[in-house]
Design brief:
Blueprint lengths: L1 H19 L7 E5 L2 E6 L8 E11 L6 E11 L20
InterPro entries: CDGP_dom (IPR056271)
Keywords: Signal
Pfam families: CDGP
Length: 96
C-alpha cells in the first residue's frame, strides 16, 4: 500500500513540475479537458511555433500501477493543420 501511495505521489509531483515549468516568453497554456495541459512556445519569424501536450499514461506495475505525465510536442502554423488531430485545438497560437 505504501508503494502505491508513493507512486501516485511521485506521479502527481512530476505532473505538477511539468505543468508549472515556466514557458518561454510570449507562450501560453491551457489546462484541463482531454489533456493535463497544452502549451505553445513563442511564434518564430516564419510564423511557426511549437505546441506541447501533457497527457496521463498508465504505467502497469502490478499492485503499484500509476499514471505518469507524458509530454508530446509538434510544430504548428496557421496555414498548415497538424498531423495529429489532438494538437488542432485551438487552431491558433495560445497567448499567455
Amino acid at each position: 500500500m505504501k508503494r502505491c501511495i508513493v507512486g501516485v505521489l511521485a506521479a502527481t509531483v512530476m505532473a505538477v513540475g511539468l505543468l508549472t515549468a515556466a514557458p518561454q516568453a510570449a507562450a501560453g497554456c491551457l489546462y484541463g479537458g482531454p489533456t493535463l495541459g497544452r502549451c505553445d512556445g513563442p511564434v518564430q519569424p516564419d510564423g511557426t511555433w511549437e505546441r506541447c501536450l501533457v497527457v496521463a499514461q498508465w504505467v502497469p506495475r502490478g499492485a503499484s500501477s500509476y499514471l505518469a505525465p507524458v509530454k508530446h510536442c509538434q510544430p504548428m502554423s496557421l496555414g498548415r493543420p497538424p498531423a495529429d488531430p489532438n494538437f488542432a485545438e485551438p487552431p491558433v497560437h495560445i497567448d499567455g
